[in-house]
Amino acid sequence: MAQIGAVLVLAKPENRSRLIYFMGIDRVRYRRPVLAGDCLELEGSVLRLRHKMGTLQGVARVNGQIVGEGRMTFALGDKPEA
Q1: What pTM value is reported for the model?
Q2: What percent of the chain has a predicted confidence (pLDDT) above 90?
């Protein structure tokens, strides 16, 4: 869920040259196991995005049933120069 959220944030043109740093998780619930062969659907939404910090909400589903959900906090940073 954090990875799909990172793709969502970095897809914005103003964030393409930045890095995303995972800072923490909150309200995470694992509802049931995901087994090999299950088709996992990931949904992510940005709850808050400021200049350098943000919060994402993620939901994972198998066959329409929620198998996991949670909130993630992240920071945006500049890429180091080579």
Answers
A1: 0.79
A2: 71
